[in-house]
Each structure stands twice: as structure tokens, then as C-alpha cells.
Here is the input.
Amino acid sequence: MQVDLDTLRGFFRSAPFMVDLGVEPTAVEPGRVSTQLIVAKRHCQHTGVVHAGVIAALADHSMGAAAQTMAPDGHWVLTAEFKTSLLRGASGERLECEAWIIKPGRQVSFTEAEVYAVATSGERRLVAKASGTMAITKA
Here is the structure.
């Protein structure tokens, strides 16, 4: 499936939870997607760092979108399983996620993602790594 940035933005806008979180795609190419989220107080836990669930959701949906770029027409991608490893607390102005396919397939695709916290100074720190198995299903 050919997916350009406008189409990808439409996919994200059609997912209410991604809209609630404020996740926006920033780049796309076959098998690869970049997204970002502007960090707000509502994304944080009691210690002031971004909640692990926000980071996991950002990585999961970005990995699914990366797999969707390689799915055949008339098919959708659904997460079959995913794992998120939190490397350090995430704080800053925004989160950036880079997601890509490591092995595409007809029935499942294997994906990975990295999530970075970006400070107002522009410093970018890796805060999480994720991997996911995406099921390719008929629409």
C-alpha cells in the first residue's frame, strides 16, 4: 500500500486514542514511520516523567503504521504482540518515535521502534525501545 504523509496523518486522525494523546506523524517511507507527541502534564505520572503507557502506545501505533506502509491493498495491520523496554524516565518538550519493519511478511510483519525524549535545548535522549509482531488481515 502506497502511503504518503497526508494519508498517514488521516490514519492517525481516525484513531481516537492517538488523537487524544496528540500523536502526529512527521515522516513516512515504505516500511518506516516517524511520529511525535508534544508532552503535556496529562501525559505524566506523579514523578513528573511521561507515563510508560503513553510511551508504549506511541511506539505500538507507530510500528503498526510502519507495517501498514507495506501491507497489500485491502488489508489492515493489527498488533499481535509487542514489548516495550523503558531505558530511562522520559521528560522534555516532546517525544519522537522512529519505527520500522525488520521483516515484512504476508501474514505477519516484525517491527521495531525507538522513542526519544527531546528537551527544549534540542538534546535528544533514547528513552525506550520496542518490538512488535503485526498481523496482516483482510479489511
About this structure: The beta strands are 23-29, 32-38, 75-86, 94-103, 108-118, 124-138. The chain has a mean pLDDT of 96. The domain at 5-138 is CATH 3.10.129.10 (Thiol Ester Dehydrase; Chain A).
